[in-house]
Each structure stands twice: as structure tokens, then as C-alpha cells.
Amino acid sequence: xxxxxxxxxxxxxxxxxxxxxxxxxxxxxxxxxxxxxxxxxxxxxxxxxxxxxxxxxxxxxxxxxxxxxxxxxxxxxxxxxxxxxxxxxxxxxxxxxxxxxxxxxxxxxxxxxxxxxxxxxxxxxxxxxxxxxxxxxxxxxxxxxxxxxxxxxxxxxxxxxxxxxxxxxxxxxxxxxxxxxxxxxxxxxxxxxxxxxxxxxxxxxxxxxxxxxxxxxxxxxxxxxxxxxxxxxxxxxxxxxxxxxxxxxxxxxxxxxxxxxxxxxxxxxxxxxxxxxxxxxxxxxxxxxxxxxxxxxxxxxxxxxxxxxxxxxxxxxxxxxxxxxxxxxxxxxxxxxxxxxxx
Length: 343
Fold this sequence. Notes:
It is elongated and about 70 Å long. It contains 10 helices and 16 strands. A hairpin with a 3-residue loop joins strand 10 (228-230) and strand 11 (234-236). Mean pLDDT is 83; it is low at 1-60. By secondary structure, the chain is an alpha+beta fold. The chain folds into 2 domains: 7-31 and 125-223, Elongation Factor Tu (Ef-tu), domain 3 (Beta Barrel), CATH 2.40.30.40; 65-123 and 227-340, Aminopeptidase (3-Layer(aba) Sandwich). The chain has a 6-stranded mixed beta sheet with strand order 1-2-12-3-13-14, sandwiched between helices. A 6-stranded antiparallel barrel has the order 4-5-8-7-6-9. Strands 10-11-16-15 form a 4-stranded antiparallel beta sheet. Helix content is 30%, strand content 22%.
């Protein structure tokens, strides 16, 4: 075995790209080491104190459905691990709060009828299951696969590991055809790739190097999100339908509708669990006279009232290029405003 092979042992039959990823990490660190002005502690405290005393708290301007959908599509919210996305929603939707289950909710109006509108934030994803001695990550899926070949999207593709100190780029390893050809038997097809076959390379040559990147077991992992706009206002991205639906709800709330009665708007978590975030909203803020639940969520009842369900049409559903029409999402936002105003 040559020196490189001795230094970078790897699971039998898997290609190694660690050196390339190491160079990527080095370049990122070099470019992030930008010198900044130096302030003493006292100077900084006085400066920020003056800034806060003369400046109102920042308020983000309302954004279009297209802008919100593109932004949401670039985020990751593995089911049960949605906090980063809910943090962003709390900023984008002034007046919203996070309940004890992790949902982001906003109450509008008062009195009867009391209605609920909800969209699901989460997606099927992965967490780190183990870190091997030679620095590879193995994975465990969170949520049932929406289609049998769902895990194949990982093979040979860029992924993002959400470590304790920030996002770490990686790649799903690919079996070497030269080392594995013919091992199963002549004329026998290769086994279908599943999450159990997945190894993620983050450029680490040992478990210690992987942990030095602040990666640990149960860190969320997803395909690298690269949302793409094309054609006549079409958006392609993983879970694009859900993201566009939630963007429509956020845009409707930013429009400040003149609500009749009271409306609770909820961006819910854990929709793929048996006990869902939607059920928590129903218990904490129900009962509701009417409910509109978007995104195909389990337990879609309105806390006493049967819920109407709505799902935006998508193409290439449950793939890395799931595509949704932002014209449809824009129309949905207008429909939601009309629904809240009981028009």
C-alpha cells in the first residue's frame, strides 16, 4: 500500500476525496480570516449603547413570495431539528412567537369565529449515526422515505453537515466500480443504495479530525441546498412545495390582513412524527371553529373542527429537483389573505 493509502484508509470499495475537501476547508479558513477594526471593551460598550439609544429596533421590509420561497428553499429543517429555520421565521414575521413544542405561531384579531391556518416546515432528512475510525460519517434517516429510491439522492452528491460551530460541507461517497465489480455474482444486479450504505466524507482522516470540526452523533445532515429558479417562475429544490407553501403564508401575514374574528397562523414542526407540532397547536390554542392545513400533515384536524387541507402542485415530487410554480404560490398568498379576512 502506498503512503497515501496508509494515511487515508477507507471502507473497502469506496472512493476517497478527503484531500480535496481539506483544501476547500483551508481556503474557507483563509478567506474568513479578514482583519477587523479593534475596539477596547469600554469603547465597544459605549458605541453599541449609543447605537441602541438612537436607533429603533431593526424591522425587515416585507418580501415577495418569490423572495421568501427562494430563501426558505435554501434552508434545512430535518424533522425534529427545525430550530434554525424557526429562528429565521421569528425575524421575518414580526409579532410571532415560539411555543413550547417549537412551532412558530402568530395570533391576529380577536373574538369569533376562531380559525387556524398552518403549514409544515419539516422535511425527511438524516443525522450522523456514527463517526468511523478513519473519519467517515455514517447516517441514520429521520422520517420515513417518501419513495423507495429516496436515499439514492445522497450517492455522489454534495451534502451539508450542521455541526455545533456551523455548516460543514461533505460528499456522499461512491463505490468504486473497479473494486466491487463481480463480487456479488455474475449476472446479479448491484444492491439498491440505501442510507445503510451511505458514507459521508468531510475531509477528515480520523474520528478526531471529524470531531475537531464540531461534528458529533445526531448532527443534522441534508443534501446541499441549491435552489434554482428557471422558466416562468418555477423553483426547483428539495421540498420546494412545502417551502413555497410556507412562503405564501409568511407573505400573507406580512400583508397585515384585516382579520374577521381571530386567526392563529402556525408554522409547525415534526409533521412527520406520530405526535405532531400541529397537534400541539390545537391543544395549546384550540379549539378552533375552522382550520386550513397546508402541506399534507398528519393529525390534520382543527382542534374540534375538521380541517380543510391544501397542497401546492409539484413536479418531480420528493426528489432533489422537486419543482413548484411560484405563480401558484403567489395566488395562494392572495387566497390566504382573503380567507383570513373571510372574503
